[in-house]
Structure formats: structure tokens, C-alpha cells
Amino acid sequence: MECPACHRELTTMTVGGVKLDVCKDGCAGIWFNAFELKKFDEPNEFAGDELLEMKPAPGVVLDQTQRYKCPECADHPVMMRHFESAKRGVTVDVCPECGGDWLDPGELRNIRDEFPTEEARTQAAQAYFDEVFGGQLAAEKAKSDEQLAKAHKFANHFRYICPSYYIPGEQQWGAF
Predict the structure, then answer these.
(1) Residue ranges per domain, the chain?
(2) What is the pLDDT of residues 17-34, one digit of tens each?
(3) Is residue 95 classed as helix, strand or coil in its secondary structure?
(4) Residue 40's closest CA among 61, 54, 26, 56?
(5) Among 26, 29, 21, 105, which Cα is nearest to 60's?
(6) pTM
(7) Of 11, 83, 101, 146, which residue is most buried, by most CB within 10 angstroms?
């Protein structure tokens, strides 16, 4: 497999029982197949010192503005960049087809340093979501509560017009 960043050959390593493709002789990037990054993204998880301590080879310079192509997929789609957490400290390249993640050198350490646990990461994401969308959601909820109150009021008026013993299925008598 070819490195999406520096175009050298990736080396297969087994770390913690997981086979990873790393750019040992080049940029020191790491390819994680779908869902493999979750096995290495917390400080208490085994990551192997060799992954955290990898450095780019001398003379290898990366262009961070370059969009990478997936090294795994046959048609090599351009990977999407997204923030790995609510702190927006690390940008990860993700393949939209296979779900694999490409991490540039040092990004795994930065991800592991952001949050001590998955619960802390989830809480930070929820706090960020509330900060960004909380006002809009509260306004929509207020609209929904107002509409629900109107519906209840209408239903109460309807009960005076048509008592429940006339509503099909509510009475003991009849063929309903």
C-alpha cells in the first residue's frame, strides 16, 4: 500500500493484536482501518511506544494543505478531513468509502492527550453541541411545547362535543 502523504511504501506492523500500516521509512503517518482508531485513542489503551514515538525520516516534508487519497480503496477517493474531538485540536483524514483513518505524525499522541476517557470525550462533545445549538434547540422545543398545548386544548374542546363513549373503541356497547 502506498502512503497517501509522502507516497512511499507502507509497512505492516502488529500493535496490540491489531495490524496497522505505517509509513516507517517516510512521513511516520499511520493508517487505521475502520474502527481501529477507537482501540488506540485513549491514554489507558495500549498504543505501543513505537506508534507514539515515530518520527518522520530526515528530509521528508509534508504539505498539510494537500488532500490525501485513500490508500486502501481501489478507486482511491479523496479523504475527508474532520476534527477528532470537540476541542478541535486534531484533524483526521477519513475515507468516505471504507471508513479508514489516516493520522499524520504526532496526531495519535495529540488525540490521546486531549481526553482521559471516552466519557470525558462524550461530555465535551455534548457541551460543545449545547454551546453551538442549545439556543436553537430550546427555541424549537418552546415552539413544540406551544403546539402541544394548543393540541391538548383542542382535544379538550372536542371531548365536550363528542364524549368518549361515542368514540369507537371507548364504549362497552356497540359493534365497534
Answers:
(1) 11-116, 120-166
(2) 889 999 998 999 999 999
(3) coil
(4) 54
(5) 26
(6) 0.67
(7) 101
